[in-house]
Write the structure tokens for this entry.
Amino acid sequence: MARNWRTGFPKLAFTVPWNLMLITMGAMIFSFGAKTVAIPQEFISGGVTGTGLILYYVLGLLPPGVWYLILNVPIFILGWIYVSRRFFFYSLYGTVLTSLFMDLIPWVLVIEDALLSALTAGAIMGAGAGIALRSLGSLGGLDIISVYLNQRFNIGIGKFSFAFNMVLFSGSLFFIGLEQVLYSVFLVFVNAMVMDYFLGLFNQRKMVLIVSEKPDELAKSILNTINRGSTFIHGRGAYTGKRKKILLTVVNSMQLKRLEEIIFTIDPNAFTIEENTLNVIGKGFSQRKVY
């Protein structure tokens, strides 16, 4: 049963209902953070949303959600040309939903401290954007440009957003106060960090190198106990000159302690090196994500 779940989940991640669910959740959470915390405090949330908020604060002609929708039009042309039709339609759904939620949510989250408000808004909005980007679409806006640059030049999505927003904030000094801009910087920084965290939340794995006198027994036990394969790397001890089979395996965080138990039960004198990985793509782990 556990093996079926593990092999079936990557396929689920590419289905239409799964992607629509992620985008809907992300749009709802993102809009909640913007409407209940950022807008009442007159913060700039960055990106296209922040640009729309500046227009809303200065001109006041249209609701924030409508500005967000209008500003997305030229960006969606870019998405249509350079990304993919699938990404375009998923992101169009996310953009319309975000615009609606942003204008329809009636609540205000009252937080007296402005810095705490900025941190709270950044965390909520970053979580929403990150969840949406776990799908094959986005919430529109800067995400479309970010995904294009990430695919083409491997530029981090959150890092590009933060750099873009520094330019936006410099220009916004002419329209809102310095204090609000500084609080908005904190908001966007937290937003970027939380978004990148959510993007890598389920992809990070532990790569483990094992030096042992019982490599074959360990490899068999790892496969039978936690259903993880291993690779032998042939090496030689620098001190003894003795040839060794070094075992390489990759596990998730929940399997790590079980792996350690297997290793040191079989060979108490084993030597291990554990490293965090940014992403693992392949059988038993994530599939390559193509927008």
Observations:
- Residues 43 and 184 are 5 Å apart (CA to CA).
